Amino acid sequence: MIPEISSEKQKKLKHVKVYDQLFKKIQDGVYPPGSKLPSEPNLAEQMGVSRMTLRRALALLQEDGLISNIQGKGNYIKELHTISKNFGMEKLQHPFYACYNDEIDDLEVEFRIEPATDAISKNLERKTAAVVISDRWYKFDCVTKGYSLSFIPIETISEYDVDLNDINNLKDFMEDRIYSIASKSSCELSFTTTGNFTAIKYELSHDEMFILILETLYNSNGNVIISTKHYIPLTMFRMHLNVISKLSE
Question: Residues 111, 112, 113, 119: is their CA dihedral positive or negative?
Fold first, then answer.
C-alpha cells in the first residue's frame, strides 16, 4: 500500500511542482536562455499559486543555476553550461570566476603604491619596501556585483615586467597571467559583512552577507606573488569541488 501524502505536506510540496513545471518550460525553450520570466504577480497568476509558493520555486531554480535575479529588473534564464567533471576549485584558477554564480561583462581597476606596513608584510609573508594595492570591481550591465582587493609586492611587479603605466597590462596580469605563473595557491573561505564598505566606491549588494575568499598565490620558490581578498555576495556564491577517492588514484 502506498501511504497517502497529507494535505499539509502536499501544500508544502506545491512549490516543487511549480519548480518542475518551470524547469520543463526552460528545457523546452518556452523561456530560452537570456529571456526574462514574467513578473512575479503575473507568473504566480499563470501558475495558479500564491506569490510565496512561486518565490520558493524561483529560489530552487536560482539555487540550481537555471535563473538569475537582477535586482529591480526581474528573473532571467541563464545560459545552460555543462559542468566540467575534470576540475572545480581544486584547479589553480581565478576563484572569483570559479565561485560567482552569474555573469560578469565588465571590470573596473584602480591601483595605488604605498609603503608596506607591518600588517601587509605579515600577510605577504615577506619584507617588501612597497606594495601595489589594487581595487577590482566586477560588473554586469553597469551594476557592480563583486569586488577584489589585491596586495602585490613591488618585487612581483619588477620580476614579471608588469607595466604600471598601462592599466590593461596590470589587469591582464591579475586576472589571467598570474595563474600561469603561480606554482600553488591557498584559498581560505569565510563569511563576512564587510563587503559593502570595503569596496568603498560602489555598493555590492543590498544585503550585508558575503563570502570572502582570501587567496594567496606562490611562485616556485615559495614566495608570495600576490594576496587577494575576493568578496562575493552570499546569494551569488556557488562552489564546485571534485573529491577523488584514494582507491581511484
Answer: negative
Q: What nine digits make up the cell of 153? A: 609586492
204 Cβ contact list (under 8 Å, min separation 6) = 144, 145, 146, 147, 195, 196, 210, 231, 233
What cell does 183 get? 606554482
Kindly state the cell numbers that stand for 14.
506545491
Distances from the Cα of 155 to the Cαs of 27, 34, 161, 185, in angstroms?
Answer: 51, 44, 10, 18
Q: How many CA atoms lie within 13 A of 192 on its CB side?
A: 18
Q: What is the DSSP letter of 5?
A: P
**Tens-digit pLDDT profile for residues 19-35:** 889 988 998 999 999 89
pLDDT tens for each residue of 63-94: 777 888 877 889 999 875 544 444 556 788 99
For residue 113, how many other CB atoms are within 10 A of its CB? 12
What is the spatial distance between Cα 125 and Cα 46, in angstroms, rounded to a whole number?
59
Q: How far is CA 175 from the centre of its chain?
A: 14
Least confident range of 5-19, 48-62, 112-126: 5-19
pTM (predicted TM-score): 0.73
Q: What residues contact residue 139 under an 8 Å CB cut-off, 6+ apart?
A: 104, 105, 106, 107, 108, 145
Residues forming a β-bridge with 140: 143
Please report which helix (H) or strand (E) contains residue 134, including its range: strand 130-140
Q: Cell numbers at residue 135, please?
A: 581595487
| Strands 67-70 and 74-77, bridge-based pairing | antiparallel
**What's the rounded Cα separation, in Å, for the pair 195 and 96?**
14
